[in-house]
Specification:
Distance between the termini: 20 Å
Order of helices and strands: HEHEEHHHHH
Number of strands: 3
Structural class: mainly alpha
């Protein structure tokens, strides 16, 4: 996901798809939020390692569907806060930026064999070919969720050993 998409997430964007599929984020353009392009409107799995945090934020909302998952920060403040945390964790490594996480996710997906059109869908990149539109219609969520969750879980398994446990 793009940092701007993450910064704008609210409780109503989260769907609990059950134990098998976990939490899903539906990235919409509602409530005056802006998205980069039409491929940005999509449904993606919440990484399993973040589900506890997202559930905590959902509970903190006390039923307010417009409650921000990340404190209501605008994208620039969100990036600044990430950068400050990153500097403490990674000893001021200037090669890592918030946007580089998205690139790392895509690289890990390629390394684990996730098809390119599925990676484009998960990251909101414009599809490289017209065949990738199949991810957005026709099969319904019941068919798409296992594919999305499987791809996300394989990528997470690749990346997780490199994520510091500081928060």
């Amino acid at each position: 996901m793009r940092s701007g998409e993450v910064a704008q997430l609210i409780v109503s964007d989260i769907e609990d798809a059950g134990k098998e599929h976990g939490l899903m984020v539906r990235i919409p353009d509602t409530y005056g939020r802006s998205l980069k392009n039409k491929t940005s409107v999509r449904t993606v799995p919440v990484p399993r390692c973040l589900e506890g945090f997202v559930r905590y934020r959902m509970k903190a909302s006390q039923g307010d569907a417009t409650y921000s998952l990340f404190g209501g920060f605008d994208v620039n403040d969100f990036r600044r806060r990430f950068s400050a945390k990153k500097q403490r964790v990674y000893n001021n490594d200037t090669t890592l930026a918030l946007h580089s996480l998205r690139h790392g996710f895509k690289a890990a997906g390629r390394a684990t064999g996730v098809p390119g059109d599925l990676l484009d869908y998960l990251t909101g990149h414009a599809p490289a070919s017209s065949s990738s539109v199949a991810m957005s219609y026709g099969q319904g969520y019941a068919k798409a969720y296992p594919v999305l969750r499987g791809a996300a879980d394989s990528i997470e398994a690749t990346l997780l050993p490199f994520v510091p446990r500081t928060w």
